[in-house]
Design goal:
This protein starts with a strand and ends in a 14-residue tail after the last helix. Strand 20 and strand 21 (290-295) form a beta hairpin. Strands 5-2-1-9-21-20 form a six-stranded mixed β-sheet, covered by helices on one side. Among the domains are: 5-34 and 76-108 and 260-333, FAD/NAD(P)-binding domain, CATH 3.50.50.60; 114-258, FAD/NAD(P)-binding domain (3-Layer(bba) Sandwich), CATH 3.50.50. The radius of gyration is 22 Å and the shape is elongated. By secondary structure, the protein is α/β, with parallel strands linked by helices. 42% of the residues are buried. Helix content is 32%, strand content 24%. It has helices at residues 13-21, 44-48, 61-64, 126-145, 149-155, 165-181, 211-223, 265-269, 314-333, 368-382, 386-402, and strands at residues 5-9, 28-33, 37-39, 58-60, 71-75, 78-82, 87-90, 94-96, 99-102, 106-108, 157-161, 195-200, 226-230, 234-238, 241-244, 247-250, 253-256, 260-262, 279-280, 286-287, 290-295, 300-301, 348-351, 357-360, 365-367. Helix 1 runs parallel beside helix 9 and helix 4 (126-145) packs antiparallel against helix 5 (149-155).
């Protein structure tokens, strides 16, 4: 009897968790990803603001799964799924499956203004992060070279759109870069003159957190000299700047952190989806009517115990990946499958620069230095590979002691 073939599309937190948990199972597993590395997305903003290098938050997928002899890694871009033939379509080949796990993550959404993407890049992968880093550092260089006060003001104005965790962390990191790391590096400009504006259409920053932690985050942002505009959405965005409500703000660097949409998985499957494109799944994370297809992570519209969709967070994806692996192992062994998926919420965290963060553990709410230390320890623990943990820890300690940011390199297209 041939072994079942499990295909996992996506090597993010969910897909990798499933693949890890299926190591040694009586099945052949194929992991497909368009990139050859697993990325620790929560620290991408530190790459974008020159705090860490890409290699410190990424690890080759083959290296991570090298000890799992039943797991094969394929680098390729998936273009579709044929449910009837049980085929995953890639650009240059087809791969048959007995069971399919879609963990394709999410992409940024511009709410009907896709033309803004070229001037307001979002942060989802290493290319995004290094591109934003190039824009930020180049803006300081161009401000140094111009004698025009208005042009200099525009180069030294940075706008972050969206005040969720990514936006808050990005705004705080840019402020620290300007006020601390770069403060002695220029002669014609004072980097501390940089203006960092965080724009949020809602009434408060970190809307998913309790109000008292949102207020704490707002105070921390103001201490970092970040201007926070609440209740005023961006109505226009171009290469010269943004329009906030009816106010025009000239800015050379704009970063989008306002929203995400699901991947193309719902289009591939042709099944029910929610308003942001996530596939509606059952309690066991399968597509209704297709027990051989699982959808997890940011790609899935799965309900929590309160009847609300689970958030697009790394812990959700990791727990779903491990659950699917347990269910598949039970199927293969002919055992009773586990009950419906239950998410264990261990809390949420966001950092706002050095020694400032907020943490909501439900029963405990923490802010300030203690939350920042907890945030650092938890994120380092989640990094894959001892070397990455050690390097990131050393880099953070060095940066903390010397007020220096060590990866201030302008690279990539047009970096000259």
């Amino acid at each position: 009897m041939s072994r079942p073939h499990i295909v996992i599309v996506g090597a993010g937190f969910g897909g990798l968790s499933a693949a890890h948990s299926l190591a040694g199972a009586a099945a052949d597993v194929t992991v497909i990803d368009r990139r050859n590395y697993h990325l620790f997305q929560p620290l991408l903003y530190q790459v974008a603001t020159a705090g860490l290098s890409p290699a410190q938050i990424a690890q080759p997928i083959r290296s991570i799964l090298r000890k799992a002899s039943n797991v094969r890694v394929v680098m390729g871009r998936v273009t579709g799924v044929d449910r009837q033939r049980r085929i995953v379509k890639l650009e240059d080949r087809e791969i048959a499956y007995d069971t399919l796990v879609l963990a394709t993550g999410a992409r940024h959404a511009y709410f009907g203004h896709d033309e803004w993407e070229s001037v307001a890049p979002a942060l989802k992968n290493i290319d995004d992060a290094t591109g934003i880093r190039r824009r930020i550092l180049s803006a300081f260089e161009q401000a140094e070279q111009t004698d025009d006060p208005e042009a200099r003001r525009r180069f030294l104005t940075f706008v972050v759109i969206g005040a969720g965790p990514t936006g808050v962390e990005m705004a705080g990191a840019i402020a620290e870069l300007a006020h601390v790391a770069l403060r002695y590096d220029f002669r014609a400009i004072n980097p501390r003159d940089a203006r960092i504006v965080l724009v949020e259409g809602g009434p408060r920053v970190l809307a998913a957190f309790p109000p008292q932690l949102s207020e704490s985050a707002l105070r921390s942002l103001k201490r970092l000299h970040v201007e926070v505009r609440l209740g005023k959405p961006v109505s226009e965005c171009d290469e010269r700047g943004v329009t906030i409500d009816d106010e025009r703000l000239e800015a050379a660097t704009i970063v989008w952190a306002a929203g995400v949409a699901s991947s193309s998985a719902s289009k591939w499957l042709g099944v029910e989806k929610d308003r942001v494109g996530r596939v509606v799944v059952g309690p066991d994370l399968t597509v209704p009517g297709h027990p051989e297809i699982f959808v997890i992570g940011d790609t899935a519209h799965a309900l929590g115990p309160n009847g609300q969709p689970l958030p697009g967070l790394a812990p959700v994806a990791k727990q779903q990946g491990a659950y699917v692996a347990r269910l598949l192992r039970a199927r293969i062994a002919g055992r009773t499958a586990p009950g419906p998926f239950r998410y264990r919420d261990y809390g949420a965290m966001a950092t706002i620069g050095r020694r400032a963060a907020v943490a909501d553990f439900g029963w405990l709410k923490v802010d300030g230095t203690l939350a920042w230390l907890l945030w650092g320890m938890i994120h380092i623990t989640f990094l894959i590979g001892f070397r990455n943990r050690f390097v990131v820890l050393f880099d953070w300690l060095w940066s903390y002691a010397t007020f220096q940011s060590g990866v201030r390199l302008i690279t990539g297209p047009d970096s000259h």
